[in-house]
Amino acid sequence: NQVADPVALPIVPCPDCGRRVVTFVARTGQFEGERFYKCRNHNPKKGGCDFYRWEEAYAEHLASLGPTAPPLAQINLGENEVGGGGQGGQL
User: Fold this and answer.
1) What are the protein's GO molecular function terms (predicted)?
2) For the chain, how big is the Rg over CA atoms in Å?
3) Under 8 Å between Cβ of 40 and 87
4) Of 4, 51, 52, 56, which sees the most CB atoms within 10 A?
């Protein structure tokens, strides 16, 4: 069940591969209820991207980009998106 989340941080392209970053909320384990962000191409064991950040680390990543970083809405999704689906979800 993917659900849009209005309190999530802005989404920017993955810094490793340029594809779309998505946000999820952990539903189990010690981080239950915590938000995380990962590249849609995240799968380092199979040659995919390694971008995966908990919310605080993702916020630091955004801050490091400065005010000129383009939000995802300004890039061409047709070239970067892997698969379909919404922009948020739960895990």
Assistant:
1) zinc ion binding
2) 13
3) no
4) 51
